[in-house]
Fold each of these.
Amino acid sequence: MRKILLLGLAFLIASASAFAQGRVVTGTVTSGEDGLPIPGASVVVKGTTIGTATDLDGNFSLNVPQANNTLVFSFVGSEMQEVNIGNRSQINVILQPDTRSLEEVIVTGYGTQPKREVTGAVSSVKGELIENLPMQSFDRALQGRAAGVQVRSSNGLPGGAVNIRIRGVGSINAGNEPLFIVDGVQLNNQANSSLTQANPLAFLNPNDIESMEILKDAASAAIYGSQAANGVVIITTKKGKAGKARFEFNAFAGETEPMKYLDVLGGSEWYEMRRDALTRGGDGIARARALSNMGRLPSNWQSLSPEELDAVGEALPTYDWQRELMGRGRLQNYEMNVSGGDDKTQFFLSGSYNYQESSFRPVDFERGTFRTSISHKANERLTLETNINLSTVSQNVPFAIDGAFLGNPAFSASAVLPHNPIRNEDGSFNEAIGGVLGQNIALVNEFNSGSTRRNTVVGNAIASYKITDNITYRALFGIDYYFLQEERYTDPRTPDGAGVRGRASAFNDWRSRFINTHTVNWNKTFNGVHNVSALVGYEFVSETRQGLNGQAIGFPTFQFRYIDSGAEPVFVGGFWTGYRRQGAFVNANYNYKEKYLFTATARYDGSSRFGANTQYGLFPSVRAGWNIAMEDFLKDSEIVTDLKVRASWGRTGNDQIGNFAARGLYGAGGNYANSAGIRPTSLANLELGWETNETVNLGLDYGFFSNRVTGSIDLFDRRTKDLLLNQPVLWTNGFGSIANNVGELQNRGIEFEIGTVNIDRGGFQWRTSFNFTYIKNEIVSLFDDLEFIAGAAGQQLAVGQPVGNPPFPGSSAPGAWFQAEYAGVNPATGRPMWLDADGNRTYLPIAADRRYFGSSLAPYYGGLNNTFRFKGFELTAFFTYEYGAVVSDGQYNFLRENGTRLTLNALREVNDRAWVNPGDMTDIPRTYVTAAGNANELRSQGRNFGTASLLKADFIRLAQLTVGYTFSPTLVRNLGLTRARIYAQGLNLWTYSDYPGYDPEFVGAGTGQIPITRNYTVGVQLGF
Amino acid sequence: MKYIYKYAIALFLGIGVLATSCNLDVDPRQSIDANGALDTPDGLEAALNSVYARLRAESNYGRDMFALSDALADVGRTTNNSGRLIGENNNNPGAHFTAGFWQNSYFAINEANLILDQISSGVEGASAAQLSRWEGEAKFLRALYYFDLVKVYAYIPTAVYEPGVTDEGGVPMPLEGSITSDIAFTRNSPRASVNEIYTQVYSDLNDAINLLSSAGRSGPQYATEGAAHGLLSRVALYRGDYQNAVSAATAALGSSAGTVLGGMDYVSGWRAAEHPESMFEVRIQLAAEALGVNVSLQSSFTTLLNLDNKNAQGGWGDFIPGPRVLDFFGLSQVQIDEPGTDSNNWDVTRNDDVRGFLYTTGNTVRNAGRQIESIKFVSKAGFAFGDNIPVLRKSEMHLNRAEANYHLGNVGDALAELNAFKGLRGLEDVNLSGDELLEEILNERFKEFAFEGQRFFDLKRYGRDINKTYLSANNVLPFEDFKVLPAFPQREVDGNPNLNQNRGY
């Protein structure tokens, strides 16, 4: 871009120098960075005003007066170079990038700062790094990009929820969502979709992003006070730049495909497995019952011999339900933007269209966005600016986001018995499905329908006024508005819809959030060495949300699919909720010669969510840094280019709880016999107040060898105190829990980032960046000296143990796994065994035998990026990795039962491992089921009990592989283009993992979730 | 000029701040403050509805009090159509009444306690008759919840297994409402003894009888004086207090609550939305309140959607009659017309017992194929999966009284009552005495209340083993086995230092 920028200027200089007399010198200026020619580089005869600029191919031709012998070559961002001409008339120059002057500017709370002066732990991800990734929301694209930022897709729903954790899980019940800010507007990223996951952050086309800054330590984030406990992600969108209107067109298209199909049993294999299981269960008619379970029992079975029954079973066919229901999906993206303006007014307009199908039809994502950014300098002092993002997102919804529903293809595809044909010979759907999944899922999937549409407006209007040269007042009015419309239809031709003759539901949900920020900025330099700046501000946020929904049954025919055609309304519902927050804040910076840096901030915040006595909280922070590289002894060092140590302490708050969690309330509930009921819904806690996060951060930023090696190291200790814990209440006291400020949670860790230029020679360049994070999460204390709180099945929140990863925005952190340890199979009998408290094997472990086995939160994670460039070619290979998470995968657990408890299909690798003969050493018990369908061995726990069903979710993944080629500017100029690039890209091409389920990257129960996909795209980018 | 700008900006800033910083008060719009919520007649009435409504939960009468408890007993077997109730049917460890039963019951009890607390401190604008009715109904409901809890979680007074183990007692029995964090955090109720709970249930029921005798409202969906007599009769029978069981049964039979039906009237009673025999039933008024295709009683017991067309896909039919029930009524499948693929062309053979008409063949939509199923609950309210649930039927009073009279030595009365009852069901008189008479009374109870959740507790109160060898060899749950009682929810034991877990968990 910067090359194009200077073109106009270059021509001007060229014409001005045409009259001079002397010899003609020609040559080429190329970049030492990528070996490409630099257009628009300035070539000036030293000591004169005679000069020219290189053309699009980096060539120049200059008439040099005889008296002068030295040319000065310069270009923005490169080191100036003087060349003695001598007798030469041909001079080729390579300009090296100027690392010192290429000052990176970091967006921080309510302002910007040169990276050099940053004293907190801030990671920056530039927009170009995530450009053209076929991801619907920018949060997804952060995976592996920054140390301390853990990102997981919840599942493979396009535009679905993304799990983002900055420096671990800091809260158990009060939410772990970072604060997302787009152009100064603090967003609410709760999805609130009833039918699917509609990630609100998907409103923004990721390609409209200029940069993302992640404020990780409490000191950096404390200026956002109450919202900042889980870190802050500040998104800056692309803005207009002065100059002639420039157009960019960008398109990519491709396919998604499942990363894995599970290897399940075929028809005859399942018959044999079931027959043998029933035989072991003591069933006298095992063959007949196995066939009966499959819906294939001949009516004359009593007259058939065992061999004849076996022959029926052996002849059963196999149909691949997974490949029927899962498959490739299309994806495409088109966008166009134009920017330009003059020195007073700049604009940026963009529009985009994005479409992606999941691996399960008809689940998809379709988005149109429109963005406009205009800034205008009304006079010397007043600047007006507005940024408006409009978007509309449509999604065809899945049967369910997760769950073991018969109608859920993501659950049933691998679990339906394989001998069932999908279609009859005449092409119609086969509706006689044997096995517990008695529905033809292909039919259900075909006939049911549902969709979600979300219209979003995120925008701001900003006025800034220079009161004096060094005092600026800025007012921002922002809005985050969405309207969510959802509908679903259960077709009367499906089993679920048949009994009620069709069921239609509709949900509408409005949310509007207003933000109003006023700041005054002041800065001054004293004696040329003392740099002081300060900011004071006030902010008010109010949010309301309301909804209306309804359901009706009894439709005339399946063609009538809208709720008003239903004969019988089932329910109507509605709700209203809201909250307000206000705060005043101040920030002061001082530095001495840019060597010694100090910052202090404080914010006083109040939230309507808290008890009347405790609404307000104070959130201070201090930071300090020492720029060692600026000291005289290092100033001219070739080896040490950058070196800065920094330390910070800060306190932030968390109020991500229910809007009325502090109140003792009676709500509607328990209607009976046609009259309304009310019941107590929450216990009052007038003292309920802020959950606070205090983080101590020690950091080091480094750059060596002219910044060929750069990076940072951070050590942090993040402690969450006064946890907003849903403190359990004995059910005998009438409630499940009460929100209370008790307990402490700690996240300690290390973050390491390094970027290197490995090779930079002859136009070939190889760059690597790597990051690594280790976080130790631990509950420090609960309440009343309590050692643990029982969590969801098999999990416990316990002092000294980590918590798990809360799956979705708004959900609570699960505990550490607390279960009886699985001890494999008794080689003599094939029965599953566990260890009791004394380490002895038992068939019937009890509560006292449980021990801790880690949690679903990965303590180690990171990313590795390699880019190679040669001439116009580039290759990017980006890996992400995670280590140490322990998960329970519901889908795998069902299949691990190996068709015993329920007549579901089984995994081949599990069935092959099952115990068969005495002496077999294995972890899979003998397949066993009684005639009555009881799969538990007599006086024994079920086969998935305890840790038998826990899995390690470690993986290394090639998340992105891109091969691109940028055409030389000369070539495309003839086509009227300023830039042309083509590329091919693959996502998730390769995963290293021994995970037996679909994929280790998911959050939640794992049952019936759509797994994430592999994507292939090809794309083109044109500038003109 | 410069100063004017400054002032203008300062003013702008000031207005911006003032205009928005008024206050942080946001009130909910769908809830009201707990303080004073019950201090109006309408509020208290609505709160009482919620206590009734909790009976509808799957964990209580919605399914488990009937289907799960019969699965635990020797009433039937599972089809594996949806996989539900298999563990319970096989008495697997942990497969028993759920934590949800405990939770929902105690929440209901707390709501009843809060109502009673409010009544004792007065309700603004309420009449004396209203106060009496509310108190009577709340006490009836509290008695019902405590009786259900104690019969599930503890041994029944007539048969306590305790050789070598200390009597763990009954269940916690808070009688004061909890609406402040003080009580919620600090009240660690220990197990009251079984006797204390029965005494409290007696007291609540007697209060209910007195209060509702004048102030009660009609209808089996609400607590009435007759229903309170009826429940007291069952409680007394469980307690082994046979004198009271007889007198309460007599009072119940004399009340206006419910009607005892005979012959085919009895069968059609099961087809009415409101069972005429009901002294107290849990009302499911709307389709939205129905528990749906997965866990409703209808779905648990039959694959039929309704009796008009057997081919229509209904529920799962997870739990079907076992051999003893089939034998009681002479049930076996029979094809009555062609073609055999049409489920309407199938029915069952039946003997003289009219209760055989409460069973028929289902359809072949589900995995297990056509089975003989109970059709006590089959869309009789006019919509699927939402049958009203008869908690107390008047017929039970005859069986309660016969059994109690037997134990009191009034064998003649017992036999006469049994024979009269048999007559209502189309059966011949019997002439028995001693143990045989008791067995026959219990068998009659089995026949009458199969698929109504009584059998498990009838076995339990006589300390009998549960013989399920019809499921698999050696499938017998001895009365001594710890699995006769369910575990208390672990969180309650963990969180309450005064609460002992049941044996074996």
Amino acid sequence: MAVAVVLLVVGIGAGYALGKYYGGSSSTGASAGGCTTTISETGSSLIYPYLQILSPNYTAENPGICVSPASTGSGTGISSAESGLVDIGGTDAYLLPSTASQYNLINVPIAISAQLIVYNLPGITQHLNLNGTILAMIYQGAITTWNNPLIQAANPGVTLPSNTIVPLHRSDGSGDTFMFSSLCYLSWSGWTHSYGTTISWPIGPGAEGNSGMVTTLSSTPYGIAYIGISYLSEIQADAHLQYAALGDQNANFDGQVASGGAGQQNYIMPTPQNISEDANLALNNLQPPSVAISLILGGVPGATDLVLGHGGTNATSADPTPYGDTNLEYTLISTHPKSSAHQKWVVNFLEWALTYGGTYASQANFLPLTAEVIGYDMLALNAVPVSA
Amino acid sequence: MVVEAPGDQPVPPAAGVLPAVDDAPARPPPSAARGSRWAWIGSPVALIPLLLVVAVAAVLVAASHFQDFGPSFWSTDYNFLPADSAASSWGIGAFLVGTGITAGAALVLATVLSLALSISIVVYLPSVPSRVLTILTNLLAGIPSVVYGIWGYVILAPYFALSLEPGLRDAIGWIPGFGGPASDIGPHGLLLAIVILTIMIIPLTTALMREALRGVPNDLLEAGLALGATRWEVARRVQMRSARLGIGSAVLLGFGRAIGESVAVAMVIGAVPMLPASLYAASTTQASFIFYQLDSAFFYPVLLRFLVEIAIVLLAIALVVNLFAQRLTQTEIATATTVGGAGGPAGR
Amino acid sequence: MTTAAAAPAGIGDGGELRRASGRLRRRLLFDRAIGWILLAAFAVVLFPLFDMLYWVSANALPTMSWGTLTENQVGTGGGLYPMIQGTFVIVGLATALAVGLGVAAGFYTSEYAPPSVARLARIAGNLLAGVPAIVLGYFGYFLLVIYAGWGFSALAGAITLGIFMTPYVYRTTDVALSSVPKGQREAALALGARPHQYLGRVAFRIALPTVLTGVFFAMALGLGEAAPLYYTAGFNSYPISNLTSPTGTLSVVIYQFYDNPASFGHFLALAFQAAFLSIVIVLGLNVAVQLLSDRYRRRLRGLYQ
């Protein structure tokens, strides 16, 4: 019996003691014990791998300064930043500028991400052409079968099946849902389901996380899903799945719906070049200059809906090939820090990440920011009061 | 320390009547310390569990900010418009229906299987296999609920979507719930959630039923066998009849566990807050919804309050069901869950 | 002492079936068929168990190394040391809390409280066991993380999980003390023992194995439950050095890391390894419970002789 009691006591105490011990002597990169300053981050599970890749590299150049990211969720990132629980909140969706200033926070984009439209169509192995309007109509139930005239018009020469489309959505709250519902909202005036990190989808089942989307779609013939580009290699490895090219005009084009065809459009593949092109077109000509953007819409004339805050531009490109389902990944930091000495390192880390992070972005399947956005970021960071 | 010898104290007649105590006499000897000057201190300490239950309820009510979602709160109309939350509708009917169907059906399956398991363990099997099986069913309780969920949608879901559900629909589609539109069939849905929930609550219901069956005096069992009844006849006519209250309480407590499961259900049910047309359809439950929507609710204060009110309703249902289970019988709930069969207090 | 141990041999055993005829034979055959059906139920239940165990092991073991247990989570690889530490700290503190509250309340319920209070306390104990884990998670989030302003922290997680575990410890303590044989009490008091001496030297010694059984079971439950921890303890990829830091745990890691592409380093493997480690710990606790109850059985047998 004594043995059992001792075991219990050891169980209670051992972890804590071991933590102290290993904390001081762990050889694997920065540990809590070797840190003079720890920069805490929590939020988006999409940003977590990126920050985890940056963290040891930053600490290697700045001994004693550790970055501790946490994978929780964008909503948690925002609420933690608002209540000052963490130095950095990570989120896939921007914080409304009015809300941000209420909590003395600023949006600091740190990378560009994109979304794939993936489908499971038995017998069809090529990349289909789709666009925001078609997707919005599918997810609202206005288009129910694959051989709908609108889809057929966008894909001449493809024999589409007459099966019912199964639109999958995310069951958990997600930046991906924010992006995709924004795309639907912007692309079709008939969209009645608003946009946000979670919405009430009128049809189709939900799946948990991007992993759940890939797994579920794979066993859902005639299904369609929106999935973060991080999962490109999984999707390519799965014989059931293929992803779509998106039309280059993501703004409202109800006129084309009325005429029964998809009209003149280029269909763009989500290649790194095309995503960068989108970012370059839109972000280098921001009108007005704001980094609070839900969707980066390169080459969309006059797309400056400030209510939604999507980034459009009037600029045209000689070779317009922007991939439209693209967005920014954000960090939130305080402009009224509790400790300006501590905040100095928070700002220093973000400046370092903006300057050198581009070389690591591809490891997390992100794209580096454009020079113009980095310029905005640096201006914003310079305005944060820190001790010299 | 001045503690009077207990024998000097008058004993209240009902003192010491405790459930599950072996052959307690009608007027038991005094509890050692009762009647000492520490007795009054004991009451608040003994009521710690009550304080905790009240605290949980109070914090949730406070967190709801008493937001009034109007009479449509009890409807099945849920439509959240994030950018226009004033135009949203907030009905919890679909959540209640999803919770009821999954927990109810899982309970029917789990009751049948648990009865079979506990009868095997108590009546049919010799000591060693019965103990091994007890450990194994207990191990089922120790697998993290996240693993159940991921296993459900990675391993089970494809079979459900591509073979089981289409097969069931063809074969027994005329039974209400097993027909419905073909478009309901998919990797997520009520049926998969029911199966996962069944597996998850079996350890609890089995443990409780096992204890209930063990509570039947051995004399009855032996008398039955001596009179020439087969083991099954004894199990059915003697044991299950004598233990029916304990079995009933096990069922209700299993229901309480089933409606509270969040993570695993969230991963397999498909998260659709609408009334399902069939057992293959995606649906949602209260517990899973308040789990997977909490992160998003930090963006939208109204949604957060809605989630808290769902949590309050869930808590109320869980407590009422639990009280019914306790009224039904004085089963030692925590004990039966605890024991792995062997630590039963009275060592029956 | 248990009917399981005695597994009564009915008349359905071999010889009778051969000799029997007519109605008796049908009854015996039916009995045998039922036996097989009951065993089939075991197969239905045990298949998921073994399949899950196999699936988790097959995905966890090939990439598991000593570093999994000792290294921090760095980049897209590394080990699970911070989450193992976090799990030990949180489950350890939660156990301490549950033992403190549960044993005290169970002790007073069984030994001190007037019958009406004891009755109410027992009902409340069972009610607390029925509170859904996710509802407790909400309670911990609002009370500790937000209102108390602790943020995501080991302490908030441990208290929430401790409340989750308390009713199991409480009920076993109560029942164990209540079922100490009357003879023990009478003997002790007759020999002139004071009540506290009786409780400390006799009752608790007899009840301790059962109480520990309950404690271990509560720990096993707490290890597998992510819902109370997800929004109270948070997440951390470094070991914690104080109880106010966000803290990673194995059960939360499974959920978080599984939602990563297979192309991202070892996240998926780490998720499976976290699952494997929790299952191993739970298995260990289960074995401990069995060993304890064996001791307990032997001791009781001695007592009654």
